[in-house]
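My current task is to audit a protein record that another person submitted. What it holds is a sequence and that sequence's fold in token form. Thanks in advance; the entry in question is below.
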Amino acid sequence: MKKSLGAKTIVYPTPVFIIGTYDKAGKPNAMNVAWGGLCCSSPPSIAISLRKATYTYGNITERKAFTVNIPSQTHAKEADYFGIASGGKEDKFATTKLTPVKSDLADAPYIKEFPLVLECKLTHTIEIGLHTQFIGEILDVKAEESVLGEGGSIDMEKLHPMLYAPDIRAYYGVGEYLGKAFSIGKQL
């Protein structure tokens, strides 16, 4: 029997996205965001939701661009730090010793040490309530060769992405391979 938990912000899995932006002065910033995911196939697009009070909110509004950086589990502390500190008060890159790299396609930095990056231009802004949803068209996906598998696809076991459990505020690693999507169900 299922127990009602009420209306809450719970969904599993929740990704750990590190959003890269520049402020008005061109200073790079990064923020940990868990409210997000793919939202359109054509054009390829991703949505993230932020509170107006965040420094990144103003940066995206100003620059109309952002990057989505996918950290591996080896950078869990740095990824968490990006969600603790405010870029308006300190240089998060200096503290974490990670490297901001200027995107060739979007007016935003990406993180050199993170294995997977999506470069995005802002296409839609939707006021929802406490959060504003930013939808970005994915202009390019950059991946370290070390996380690529057969045929040039991302290999989840090589990427080692992080997941977030919103109800208990905890990070997890990705589990085991279960089978090919849109294929294993054909066995029924």
The radius of gyration is 17 Å. The chain has a mean pLDDT of 95. Residues 41 and 123 are 14 Å apart (CA to CA). The longest helix spans residues 55-63.
